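As the next step, I needed to go through one protein, both as residues and as discrete backbone shape codes, included below for the reader:
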Amino acid sequence: MPRNAEVIRQWTILKEIEAARGSGVTIDDLSSQCGVTTRNIRRDLQALEESGFPIYDDRSHDDGRTRWLMNGQAFKSLSTGLTLSELCALHFSRTLLESLAGTPFRDELESAFDKLGGSLTPHMRAFLDQLPGVIASKADPLRRRDDQSNARQQIIARALEATLHQRQMTLTYYSRSSERTKDYLAHPYRLAYAQGGLYLLAYVPEYQEVRTFAVERIQSVSLLDERFTPIEELSEAAFPHSLGVHSGAPERIELEFQAGVADYVKARDWHQSQTSRDLPDGRVAMTLDVCVDHALRSWILSFGAAARVVSPQRLADDIAEQLGAGARQY
């Protein structure tokens, strides 16, 4: 039997015992739930006990059957009020949250996990450390390389301060699209973490609109004494109309995908506005209400000849031009 199956089964047993609370659960019940023999269950229970999990067996006075329970007092000292399975799940999720390592909360996140892990015995942690072999995460290839310099951290701290207290700020920013450096007066509305980077969404009075600044390209920040009142309400979601990190207005995008990628396309949520319908020969049509930006173009181009833009025409022409330019390089 694969080791992963054993770990998953033991995790299931822990959750079943905890969910049963004061009534407990029998070995027969666990055997039926997990689809293995009672002998396997007994070995699993012994392994969990040896790992230090506070489970124990008790014979019922009502029917004489032995049931397994969890000692709920073992974690009463935790001020979080977390259950054992919640605590274990958080400890395990440390590997899944590594994508946040580039945010200003990296140190706080590591400290919080250290405290949570301290509530588990070494044997419990050893057991849980097997779980990444069952489910793993892949690092975001778009994540920026960590820059923990004092200058960068000061910029982030000042941006947070200005955002929280609605203080006007000036910033010096290098724009990659125009390849020039410019000073801005800005009203910071929000810091957003997306696609491996940290972004500042700020209203710029000069342009009378909210603009997006990549924090990594902010060269300096100065806080002013003047306050501001937001004049535009931001959506709760970051960049709600973009497949990437753009803040433009949405447009109706119509696409067709070939049969070879149809199942893949339909099985994923690319954007909350998407709708799809089946076409003859296994093809699929999709509509999206998103802004036409670099992220959308890159996504369409990633399908190569398997995707076709139906409308708007200018986007179809742009994609055709880029595909042609790419083909001419070979």
Notes: The radius of gyration is 27 Å. The first strand starts at residue 55 and ends at 59. Residues 1-138 form a domain with the Arc Repressor Mutant, subunit A fold (CATH 1.10.10).
